[in-house]
What does this fold into?
Amino acid sequence: MTLIGQEITVLGGGIGGLAAARALAMRGARVRLLEQAAEIGEVGAGIQVSPNAGRVLAALGLEMAFEEISIASQGAVLRDYAEGAEVLRLDLTRFGRFGLVHRADLVAMLAVAAREAGVEIELGARVGEVSLDGGQAELRLENGEQREAPFLVAADGLHSRARPALLGSERPHFTGHVAWRALIPLVPGEVPAQAQVFMGPGRHLVAYPLRGGRLLNLVGVHERTAWQAEGWNHAGDPAEFRAIFTRFGGPVCGWLERVEAVHVWGLFRHEVARRWYGDNVAILGDAAHPTLPFLAQGACMALEDGWVLAACLSQGEGRGAALARYEALRAPRCRRIVDAGTANARNYHLGGPLSRTVAHLGLRVIGKALPGFMPDRFGWLYAHDVTA
It folds into this structure.
């Protein structure tokens, strides 16, 4: 099938939805994007865009624009929580550029790029229900308005309206992890351009700079039995955040003292969707494969999804064959990424002092004797190129 002149509605104005909208419009589709927020504004915190996703941005014609809004990371450093001592340094730059960026800056860049490609973005369009029973997708907005979409691309996140319409109701389960995020001001150059992971018993903290080194992004995760609401925009108590990580040494104590606002959310495990498409819909990003944040691939997978979906739909096959190909290309890779992210939670939270000491000693030995061994284990992830 050709996309020239095809009418496509994209649901969700996040990273995946905007990238998919531009990719579809670049191939000739007439794209309308519905976003529930009244404006594309200052939402979220930092994200890491690894080379596999950077290749998508380059294919979208946005490589230079992305470099202007992001910091090139020197790699990742794993540290022990007590004093911040280095355990393992991972030089991942062999796979390409890792960009550290504020989510709001990336979304704003993609919104401009989508509009430049001809995408019509409608803000304040809150969809309450999606029906897929007819030949078209039917959308009921919360204001009572009804819309029809000949074909719907649902990039509407964790609380997707399209996924249950496609697959029925599902019940995620609480992982026993609660995450916190905060931003604090920095003096440029105060913190190196790298991701630092401080690993402690039952908890860890990730830190990296944003916006030319003027902000530090902090994400802390700890284990507890009581669940917290899912999502990532619930206000938390800075004093509680500091108390949870009070035993962390090195620079962490100083950073925590500067936290004035923090957000908190529970981490829930969702299954990767057993089916990614129907006759009149395709899902992508968190709507298809919500992931835990321990591998920093949520936004990256969404960028890959958007490119692959547009490429499959434009390759001359019928829509059914194109969508089957999209799912076949994406589902196995996303399952592997989701599983690897889940495994990282265990790696960061070694509980007993003996097991932690032994594990950290082993990582130090490997890092010195075989510096390329640990980075090479991620080649399947970061060297992948969906645009090839």
Q: What stands out?
A: The chain has a mean pLDDT of 90. The first helix runs from residue 15 to 26.
